[in-house]
Amino acid sequence: MKIVLATRNAGKIAELRRILAGFDIVGLEEFPSIADVVETGVTFEENALLKAHAVAQGSGLPAVADDSGLCVDVLGGMPGVFSARWSGKHGDDVANLELLLAQVSDVPADKLTARFTCVAALALPSGESRVVEGVLPGHLVRSPRGSNGFGYDPIFVPEGERRTTAELPPEEKDAISHRGLAFRGLAPIVKQLVRS
Amino acid sequence: MKIVLATRNAGKIAELRRILAGFDIVGLEEFPSIADVVETGVTFEENALLKAHAVAQGSGLPAVADDSGLCVDVLGGMPGVFSARWSGKHGDDVANLELLLAQVSDVPADKLTARFTCVAALALPSGESRVVEGVLPGHLVRSPRGSNGFGYDPIFVPEGERRTTAELPPEEKDAISHRGLAFRGLAPIVKQLVRS
C-alpha cells in the first residue's frame, strides 16, 4: 500500500525517501486537491499530527508527516516550531539563519547549546495515529559552513562532531539526525499498522 | 546621596524617575566615561546585575539598573532578554514588534498569552547587590494600539484590561507595570542600604 509523505519541502522529501526507502512512498504533489495545512500548533507534535491527519483524510491513504526545528537553549527552545518562519517569511532559510545569529550575537559561545528536534507522525484514514520524537544535541557556530542540508544546518555542530550538519554527507547525517531517529523509530510502527 | 540610574533609554529613564521620585537620581549621561555594558547575560537578573555593578564601580555611587522584556508563552518566554534586539538591530522598536507579530501570525489568539517581566537591581560600590522581580501578565493583540510607552507596549494588553499598555496614561501604567512593581519593591531596599 502507498504511504503519502505530507510535505512539499524538497530537502525533507529527499531525506525522508532515503530513510523510509523500504516503503512505496508518494509525495504530496500527487494530491493537488489537498490544501496546505496552516501550522497552528505550538508544539512539534501538534503540527506533525495536524499535517498527517489532514493528508490521511484528504488522500484516503496512510500519511506520514513531521514537524521539526532547531531549539536553542538561550532562546527558551526557540525557533522551535517557528524555525521555518523565524524571520516572518516562511521558508526563507537565509533570512531565518541570519536573524538567529544576530539575536545571539552577544551571547558567549559556550552558552550556544542547541538541539535539532523532530516529531514524526503516522496517521491512518481511520483517524488512528502514532508519533515518535528524535533529538540531535549540539551547539551553534557563528559562521555558516557547508552546503548540504537546509535550514539551520550550516550553523549547527552535533555533539562529538567538528563539522556542521551541512558539512556531513547525507548518509552520515541521516545516521545521527533528529529526522533520521524519528523516522527510523516510526518505520516499524508504519509496518505494523499499515500491513495489519 | 546620589543614585545613578544605569540606562540611556529615554523611555525607561522617564518611567524610573516617576517611580523613584523620592530619590536624588542622576542619569548615566553624567558619567560619560562609563562604557556601555554588553548584555551577555541570558537572564534578566544576570543583565540587571551586570549593568548595576558596572555603573556602581565606574561612578563610585550606588547604582540601579533593570533588565526587562516581553515573555511570550508560545515562544518559550522569548523575546525575553532579547526584547530590545529581537530583530537583530538593537533598539529598533518597530522592527522588533513587527517581527514578533509575523512570527506568531499563525498562532490562535487564545494562545497568545504573555507577560512583561522586569528585574531591578541595586549595586553598591562595595560590591553588595539586591534584585527584585516584577511581572505583569496579559496577552498579545495583533494590531498595535496607543502611543504611550515604548517597545512592545502597543501590542500588550494586561490581564483585566481592554487597553494596551501603550493606551494607558503613564500613571496608570506605573501602578501595574512590571517595572513599577520591581522598582517599588526595590525602593525600600535602596533606602535601607544607601542610608545605612
From TrEMBL, chains A, B:
Please tell me whether the keyword Hydrolase is annotated for this protein: yes
Which positions in this protein are listed as binding Mg(2+)?
A: 67
Enzyme Commission number, as recorded = 3.6.1.66
Gene Ontology process terms (BP): nucleotide metabolic process; purine nucleoside triphosphate catabolic process
- How does the cofactor bind to this protein, according to its record? Binds 1 Mg(2+) ion per subunit.
How does the record describe its quaternary structure?
Answer: Homodimer.
PANTHER family under this entry?
INOSINE TRIPHOSPHATE PYROPHOSPHATASE, INOSINE TRIPHOSPHATE PYROPHOSPHATASE/HAM1 PROTEIN
Q: What is this protein called?
A: dITP/XTP pyrophosphatase
Organism, by scientific name, is: Nonomuraea phyllanthi
